[in-house]
Each structure stands twice: as structure tokens, then as C-alpha cells.
Amino acid sequence: MADWQPGDLALCVRAGAFRCSSRQLHTGKSRDTPRRGFVGKVIATTIPPLNDGSDCKCGCVLLIFEGGEKGVSPRFVKVTPPKADEFDKEVISLMTTNPSKVEA
Predict the structure, then answer these.
(1) What would the mean pLDDT of 63-91 be, rounded to a whole number?
(2) Domain count, the chain
């Protein structure tokens, strides 16, 4: 189980039914399950309910995305942008600086 948190970007890499490492079947048949290739921002995490109404005991985390999509964590990998280089840092600085304080 990854340490998923709100604000993380996730890429869906697995579609369809599969069994997680605990042999729990995850069907992926919900209308709000993202398709492979989907990239979304996580807004919340929780333990998913099973078909019988009980909570999933396998340790998979349900990721909830901005658009209402949901999926269990083994379907996703985190999207981690590379560290900012000097050019990126300069651009970020210019974009976050108060324009009234910039000398012309």
C-alpha cells in the first residue's frame, strides 16, 4: 500500500478485474472507475466497501478524485514531477513575486 494523500497525482495503469496482493477480487465495474491512462488529482482516500457491504480487508485504499472518479490504489501509480532545476526555480519565483515589487 502506498502512502496516498490528498493532492497526489495518480495515473491509472490497470483496468478490468484483478486480484490484489491479498487475493481480494476488485472488479472495476463501477461507472466511476477510471479507465487506463486516466490522470487525476486525489482529493480523499478511504477503505473501499466490498459487494457484501463489509470493508475491504486487503489493505487497498480507495482513491477519490476531483471529478468524482474512484479506484483502488493498486490500479494506480503516483505521478511525481521531476525536481525543479535553476530555470524552473527562476520562473516560479517570477510567477509568485508580487508585480508591484518587480523593478522595471
Answers:
(1) 87
(2) 1
Does 75 fall in a domain? Answer: yes
Long-range contact set of residues 22-25: C-beta below 8 Å, sequence gap at least 24: 22/57, 22/58, 22/59, 22/60, 23/58, 24/50, 24/56, 24/57, 24/58, 24/60
DSSP reduced 3-state for 78: strand
Give the mean pLDDT of the chain: 80
Residue 3 lies in a domain: no
> What is the rounded CA–CA span in Å between residue 76 and residue 21?
14
Q: Is residue 2 part of a domain?
A: no
The residues, any chain, with a CB within 8 Å of residue 101's CB and separated by 6 or more, are: none
Q: Is 0.70 topped by the overall pTM?
A: no
